[in-house]
Amino acid sequence: MNKRNLLLSGLALALSTSASANFTATPEEARSIAKEAYLYGFPVVEMYKTLYTQAVDKKSPNFKAPFNQIGNTAKAFTARDTAFVTPNADTPYSFVWMDLRAEPLVLTLPPIEEHRYYSVQLIDAYTQNFAYLGTRSTGNNGGHYMIAGPNWQGQQPLNIDRLLRSESNIAYALYRTQLFDDKDLAKVKQIQKGYKVETLSHYDKQKAPPAAPKIDWPKPTPTMSDTPDIFRYLNFMLSFAPSQDVEKDLLGRFAKIGIEAGKPFNVNTLSPDQRKALEDGISDAKAEFAEFKKTKVDTHEVSSGDVFGTRDHLKGNYLYRYAGANMGIFGNSAEEADYIGYFVDKDGQPVDASKHDYTLHFDKDALPPADAFWSLTMYDGQNKLLVANPLNRYLINSRMLPDLKRDTDGGLTLYVQHQAPAKDLQSNWLPAPNGPFYGVLRLYLPKPEVTNGQWNMPLLTPVDQKDK
User: Fold this and answer.
1) What's the CATH code of the domain at 181?
2) Considering the domain boundaries, does residue 148 fall inside one?
3) Which Gene3D superfamilies does its entry note (predicted)?
């Protein structure tokens, strides 16, 4: 054997030995740990996908702005926007990916009119909503708000209205500014121009601290969230999120299959049995979620308010956190918005516009109770994105009520279907794809009767297409 082959053989042996050293679980134990780690890590890795396309890959059509700068989308989302699943199309977004390693950021919000809803959702690397700014939480008068990472030890300036802490050094600020109609777009753009982001040293006119080390961002792959390769990206992202005391034992178990913050994870160095154990564990996790969605989510026993929120709110329920990231990543906490998913009809059958048309009826005095506004948005059941249609209508919301046709008794019936209904009903038509779909009814600043069960949500009623 020549020197080159000896070198390659030695390198392969070293990699294999390294993998074996990091992977200490038996195949049976590894399968169980992989299931747990997949549910835990999927939201983190899905967040990384969005981070990469919005803040790292400047060639991406979804690129918004580099880190610590704001990117504004001065339009509502359409079917062409693919950065993340189940987006809303009522509130043009602004985006700030925050790198808090060197120093905090200061977010400045302008005063805006009282009747317009807006919010800044602050999300850590685990997709947990650690705080909010905006109409509900800080009002519409504007202000200066400092976002600090877990290790910052400095002094808060006196002219900062509030200091908010992220438990991870990489975090996300997702702005929503209510758009009333097409004529309102210029006003929304003006508001967005008032959103400012700057480092604390720039804001406070002090000398900047040393820059944080440059990050080598791994390029996402098409199957990264469905194979054991997910753990490579999880290890990478965990390096920006110091471990929490409550997760010490959990992370200790994860280390038995090579999941450790900042450590390399190479699927190719695993033995066939080890790899199969991880694949089986991922399959187990997906099966658990499928059953959970069918029996808990589709039946509305578990609501959006259960699966989105702070770490304290989620109480270590990683299945819930996974469900939120899987069905609608970056969803709002319950006090900010309520999401009602229409995945099945009133008979419990999956909704499919190639098989049925559907109606959704609200009684006269039973429209969705929200202090800001409500909106029913249509999504393709396969790619979870907005549905292209000839009307370019992706939703029906409370701002459209004056243009909707009321029933003779004052109620409201919406027509959810692929083909257009009769001409006199088209104002109430929400176009669906020619196949599986789902709808999401969003209530921004929901009233108490939503959470206390006094308001009964209506269900989708199937209508045979041959009977139209």
Assistant:
1) 2.60.40.1610
2) yes
3) Domain of unknown function DUF1214, C-terminal domain (2.60.120.600), Domain of unknown function DUF1254 (2.60.40.1610)
Residue 229 lies in a domain: no
Q: Kindly give, in sequence order, each residue whose CB lies less than 8 Å from that of residue 193, ignoring residues fewer than 6 positions away.
A: 72
Write out the residue range of the structural domain in which residue 458 sits. Answer: 336-467
Tell me the pLDDT of the chain (468 aa) as tens digits: 454 444 444 443 433 444 445 899 999 999 999 999 999 999 999 999 999 999 999 999 999 999 999 999 987 788 988 887 898 889 999 999 999 999 999 999 999 999 999 999 999 999 999 999 999 999 999 999 999 999 999 989 999 999 999 999 999 999 999 999 888 999 999 999 999 999 999 999 999 999 999 999 999 999 999 999 999 999 999 999 999 999 999 999 999 999 999 999 999 999 999 999 999 999 999 999 999 999 999 998 999 999 999 999 999 999 999 999 999 999 999 999 999 999 999 999 999 999 999 999 999 999 999 999 999 999 999 999 999 999 999 999 999 999 999 999 999 999 999 999 999 999 999 999 999 999 999 999 999 999 888 999 999 999 988 654
Q: From 144, 169, 203, give the residue that closes a domain.
A: 203
371-404 in b/e burial notation, b at 16+ Cβ within 10 A? Answer: ebbbbbbbbbbeebbbbebeeeebbbbbbeeeee
Rounded Cα gap, residues 454 and 72, in angstroms:
38
The reported pTM is: 0.88
- The answer to whether position 269 is within a domain reads no
* Residue at which a domain ends, from 166, 183, 203: 203
Q: Does residue 328 sit in helix, strand or coil?
A: helix
Say if residues 42 and 230 touch (Cβ distance below 8 Å).
Answer: yes
What is the number of structural domains in the chain? 2
Query: Is 247 a domain residue?
Result: no
- Length of the chain in terms of residues written: 468
Alpha helix positions (H), 158-301: 185-193, 200-203, 230-238, 248-254, 272-292
27: its two tokens: 């195949």
Tokens 């790292």: give the residue. Answer: 56
